[in-house]
From TrEMBL:
The protein, known as: Methyltransferase domain-containing protein
Gene3D superfamilies: Vaccinia Virus protein VP39
InterPro entries assigned: Methyltransf_25, SAM-dependent_MTases_sf
Family annotation (Pfam families): Methyltransf_25
Domain Methyltransferase: 86-172
Length: 269
């Protein structure tokens, strides 16, 4: 949907803050997951891309990175993977490819047929599926990855992590890119906005989305039946490795009240 054409004057997404609701028209009708929610960025249409959140936040999307070669931060993820790995919401598949090149069995999963095509074109394996639909090898994956904000898929991180828990084997882990400590857990709607080279601003339909930071990760994990043995950083990016309680070295946290001990651990990470 085009919401404006830029001639001259301020940037259409300009200003340091976005007035909540100014860009995010009321969510009408269905906000069920659609295969083309990310179409503009998966097509790599020239322009700049943002994710507009219904709380007014706008996040520039690193679309060039998604379509490029695996960046240095992916090395830290690949190094943690020791067995068959499912890259959920693989997009154009650069991480699936990095894992494959490292000699792992890696499969990308994406609800977008185009993303799956792009991943396959790069030489990696991908299947066209919703993560909440039946998937091959359920309960047998060593790792499930949720990178690049993919913890937002479906708009409910507890439900998504609980689903990922079903996918991993007992000693498996879910590796999740999280936000630096601060914003906590946010759930709402998002839509994509693309500023095309001709100045037209196009905005997609709304879909459910969420954000999770390194502190709230502990309580969200617990609600999904997981623990977080480790939060780690690679450059400026933050990640959490989630595991099934009882996995070697992964008990439930000793202090279960309020999450203070757990969150301070992440906060000092
Ligand atoms: C933020 S992009 C992630 C980019 C990707 N990690 C990369 O490196 O290119 C989100 C991706 O998740 C996919 N996605 C959204 N909902 C999904 C679902 N329910 N199941 C599987 N994939 C989904 C989208 O199609 C999109 O490719």
């Amino acid at each position: 949907m085009t919401i404006g054409t830029r001639a001259t004057g301020p940037h259409p997404l300009g200003g340091t803050t976005v007035v909540p609701g100014a860009l995010d028209a009321p969510v009408a009708g269905s906000v069920e997951p659609a295969a083309d929610d990310f179409a503009a960025v998966l097509d790599h249409r020239p322009g700049r891309h943002w994710l507009l959140h219904s709380d007014g936040r706008r996040s520039p999307l690193p679309v060039g990175r998604w379509h490029g070669p695996p960046e240095p931060a992916t090395r830290a993820i690949v190094a943690r993977c020791a067995g068959p790995t499912l890259d959920v919401g693989c997009g154009p598949g650069r991480l699936t490819l990095a894992l494959t090149r490292a000699g792992h069995t890696a499969v990308g999963v994406d609800v977008s047929a185009h993303a799956v095509r792009l991943t396959r074109r790069r030489g990696a394996v991908a299947i066209h599926r919703d993560v909440f639909a039946p998937l091959p090898g359920e309960g047998r994956w060593a790792h499930v990855l949720l990178m690049d904000g993919n913890i937002g898929i479906g708009g409910d991180p507890v439900a998504l992590l609980a689903r990922c828990r079903e996918l991993i084997r007992r000693d498996g882990t879910v590796i999740v890119e999280v936000e630096p400590p601060g914003p906590g857990l946010w759930r709402g709607h998002a839509r994509l906005a693309t500023l095309a080279a001709d100045g037209a601003l196009r905005r997609g339909g709304a879909f459910r989305w969420a954000r999770l930071d390194a502190v709230a990760a502990y309580d969200v994990a617990a609600a999904a039946g997981l623990v977080v043995p480790e939060v780690f950083r690679s450059g400026r990016r933050w990640f959490g490795e989630f595991a099934v309680p009882g996995r070697r070295g992964c008990g439930w946290p000793a202090a279960s009240g309020g999450g203070t001990g757990r969150t301070s651990r992440a906060g000092t990470g």
